[in-house]
From TrEMBL:
<feature type="signal peptide">
    <location>
        <begin position="1"/>
        <end position="22"/>
    </location>
</feature>
<keyword id="KW-0732">Signal</keyword>
<dbReference type="GO" id="GO:0004180">
    <property type="term" value="F:carboxypeptidase activity"/>
</dbReference>
<keyword id="KW-0645">Protease</keyword>
<keyword id="KW-0121">Carboxypeptidase</keyword>
<protein>
    <submittedName>
        <fullName>Carboxypeptidase regulatory-like domain-containing protein</fullName>
    </submittedName>
</protein>
<dbReference type="InterPro" id="IPR008969">
    <property type="entry name" value="CarboxyPept-like_regulatory"/>
</dbReference>
<dbReference type="Pfam" id="PF13620">
    <property type="entry name" value="CarboxypepD_reg"/>
</dbReference>
<keyword id="KW-0378">Hydrolase</keyword>
């Protein structure tokens, strides 16, 4: 039993360290009403004040975020 406690404590510490350093990505695709991709649309991650512009396929990605709740806003100016 004396050996089990330090091993258990080590694994708990290891899991806590991994959870504390967990990173996540948010990605998606911006499309119009007919489901066609919208290249050049602006996507804002409101809480972090980060902005991405969609690629030719309408795809965006925010990388290395801490876990949490986020809001996205999109805008596009048609020409």
């Amino acid at each position: 039993m004396k050996i089990l406690y330090p091993v258990f404590s080590f694994f708990c510490l290891l899991l806590f360290t991994q959870a504390a350093s967990a990173q996540l990505n948010i990605n998606g695709k911006v499309t119009d009403k007919s489901n066609k991709p919208i290249p050049g649309a602006t996507v804002k991650l409101v809480e972090k004040n980060l902005v991405q512009v969609t690629d030719q396929e309408g795809i965006f990605e925010f990388k290395d975020l801490t876990p949490g709740t986020y809001s996205l806003s999109t805008s596009y100016i048609a020409m």
